[in-house]
């Protein structure tokens, strides 16, 4: 009971103790106080709402917290990387645009790439947004050998990219395609689709063996190429191009050959969280329509990676 309600009821009782006419006034006063209390409750409920156009589409959990927790591997500039103590890049900028449509804040937490889906399945994160390729294997929870390793995830696709080889500046081994890697050593980040690509190429190489050295982070794989321990790293085209442009002032690496195997990146969502998945799909469609999506891609010079519509599980 609030102090104002107590005062109203006390005042009403004193008037009832007087004469009948004043008692009527007291009753009217009590009714008025009741109206004020009801109005206060409605105002409190209203503060939980949002003017964001898609706020009502979210599960109540996120309406209450106003936060969506995002797992990422912040070592993939320009997609996501750390700068000045913050995680920045294409994915955080797209997430910020989605947040405006949904009325929530996307909070990014850094982790190793091969642990991101498990952090989603255990509930530590609500989504994964980390330049993650949407594949049937990930949708179904399968490893590269087709073995079931989890329940899988759903993807809301928002970006498209092919893969490119990153080699030392000057390309001393004259690498122009995956076939040129047979008989060499390559470096790659563990648990990525790029490791799967190298494994598939190793089978094609047969007796002319391709040795694959996996690392926890792509930065480690890049360093292996830099010091000459491996001839190439494999990465998404925007990432590889950014590394070649910025590392060592543009004098450390270069992109070799054309980008291949273009496919979608997706925001990974637990399969039991379909309402959140669908809300994210609507938000992606909304920022494509209102132009905020194009602004982000133009800022990072990756307009050729744009999707024209939102999709769920469009990867192969």
Describe the structure.
- The chain contains 11 helices and 12 strands.
- Helices cover about 40% and strands about 25% of the residues.
- A hairpin with a 3-residue loop joins strand 2 and strand 3.
- It is α/β, with parallel strands linked by helices.
- The longest helix is centred in the first third of the chain and has 27 residues, at about 20-45.
- The strands form 3 sheets. Strands 1, 5, 6, 7, 10, 11 and 12 form a 7-stranded mixed β-sheet that branches. Strands 2-3-4 form a 3-stranded antiparallel β-sheet.
- The radius of gyration is 28 Å and the shape is globular.
- The termini are far apart.
Write the layout of secondary structure elements.
Blueprint lengths: L2 H14 L3 H27 L13 H6 L1 E6 L2 E2 L3 E4 L2 E3 L1 H13 L2 E6 L5 H6 L5 E2 L7 H5 L12 E16 L16 E5 L3 H13 L5 E5 L2 H9 L6 E4 H10 L6 E18 L3 H17 L1 H8 L11 E2 L4
Parallel strand pairs: 1-5, 1-6, 8-9
Antiparallel strand pairs: 2-3, 3-4, 6-11, 7-10, 7-11, 7-12
Helix pairs in contact: 1-2, 4-10, 4-11
In short:
Helices cover 41% and strands 23% of the residues. By secondary structure, it is α/β, with parallel strands linked by helices.
